[in-house]
Amino acid sequence: MALQVLHLHQSDVFKIFSHNKYYFESNFIKYYPSDGYGVAIFNNDSRDTTFFHGPNDNLKKLFELEYFDLPIFQQLITAELQVATQLINRLLVHNIISKEK
Amino acid sequence: MLIDVGEYLFRVDSAPSIVKNNLNLMYGDAIIKNSLAPADFTISLQHDSLLRKFLKPQVTFYLGSNSPFKPLPASQSYPVMEWGMNWCIAATDFNRLIVHAAVLVKNNKAIVFPATPGSGKSTLSAYFALSGWKLYSDEMAIIDLETLKVMPLFRPVCLKNESISLVKQWFPESIFTGIAKDTQKGDVAHLKINNFAEYKTFSPVDVVAIVFPKYQKNTKTEPYKISKIAGFEKLAGNSFNYNILGRTGFETIQRIIERTQQVEINYNDLSDVDDLLTSEFTL
Q1: Considering only alpha carbons, which residue of chain B is nearest residue A53?
Q2: Percent of chain B residues topping a pLDDT of 90
Q3: What is the pLDDT of residues A81-92, one digit of tens each?
Q4: Mean pLDDT computed over B237-252
Q5: Are the CB atoms for B41 and B11 separated by under 8 Å?
Q6: DSSP states of B227-247
Q7: pLDDT tens digits for B177-233?
Q8: Which chain B residues are Cβ-neighbours of A44 within 8 angstroms?
Q9: Each residue of B39-59: pLDDT tens digit?
């Protein structure tokens, strides 16, 4: 029963997130380390720094897009739904992306 | 009393005699008496009331007329003075990147040891500094924003708890203040490393590595290379003024990370760490 509830909840999350388009803001600079791993993003407005770990080839591909949605994010960064939604939320919280208005 | 710690001048307006004696012991010929030269910081250590001079005596650290800390027991006077001096630099210098770290130099190459929990930073500083390395700082790395060179500071090492007896045992001739008991960091004593004439021969040098040591009993000393992004995150997290420097701080750390190696070292023997760093970074 608990598993069923979780399953329903996850699919709801997917439905909600997969319909959203996320656009990159223009208020940040990025640093891709030369060892090919991760990215640091500095927000010029809030002056905070967000770190993402993982191969930075795919991170570069993501940041080159005009916008992305959940399936694209899962394809490039992580297939794990829960982690993907957490990371997208983190990008939203730090004003690196915004939802389509 | 004016104290020249290299990058900064401290004027000590007033302090209990025990503090003045310890300042003389730790800074010696870096103290300029009867000087009217302008200081970067005018500091004092005062009893806030006559009552607190005699009944459960307490002292308060002042920068000018402002006190950043609560009063502390007079038995901790000297550590309070040293911590106050640290605070003055960390809270007001926004022209350099300042990282909470020890800096040790060999063959004109600096290694920065950020103060991560369990690193044994001060014990390591004392051991290395008394074993042929140059101590540029036990407490903070002062890094020039343009050249990325690290500047030397003339300050003692602050040792805590078991480290005090350990260093006294390793180096019986070393010069210590008395032990201040039961401070917020436990028992604390300060250790003099260089005299001022030796210090004056130190010049700014390039950083070759950021090393995150971790003391572990019964472990073999081994280095682990960490990713540059992890090194960036840790270095920024240990910086006092990274957020204030904003974009300059971000770009400075980025340049440091690209120019240096970042390594974690698990150790239980400091002489192994010395050997390892010397061979790893051809010091």
Answers
A1: B229
A2: 86
A3: 999 999 999 999
A4: 97
A5: yes
A6: -HHHHHHHHHHTBSSHHHHTH
A7: 999 999 988 999 999 999 999 999 999 999 999 999 998 888 899 999 999 999 999
A8: 246-247
A9: 999 999 998 777 766 777 899
Whether residues A29 and B232 touch (CB distance < 8 A) is answered with no
* Helix (H/G/I), strand (E/B), else coil: A95: coil
d(CA B43, CA B92): 14
Of B235, B229, B156, B240, the residue nearest B199 (C-alpha):
B156
State both tokens at B246.
């904003």
A34, A35, A38, A43 alpha-carbon torsion, rounded to 10°: -20
CA distance B282 to B228: 21
Distances in Å between the Cα of B226 and the Cα atoms of A27, A76, A82, B262 are 29, 23, 27, 6
**What residues in A contact B233, CB-CB < 8 Å?**
40, 51
ipTM comes to 0.85
| pLDDT at residue B223, as a whole number | 92
Q: What is the pTM of this model?
A: 0.90
Which residues of B119-193 form beta strands (DSSP E)?
134-137, 140-144, 150-151, 157-160, 175-176, 180-183, 186-192
| Helix, strand, or coil (residue B272) | helix
CB atoms within 10 A of CB B157: 28
DSSP classification of residue B55: S
- CB distance B97 to B150 below 8 Å: no
For B162, residues 6+ apart whose C-beta sits below 8 A from its C-beta are none
**pLDDT the model gives residue B282:** 78
| Cβ contact, residue pair B227, A53, below 8 Å | yes
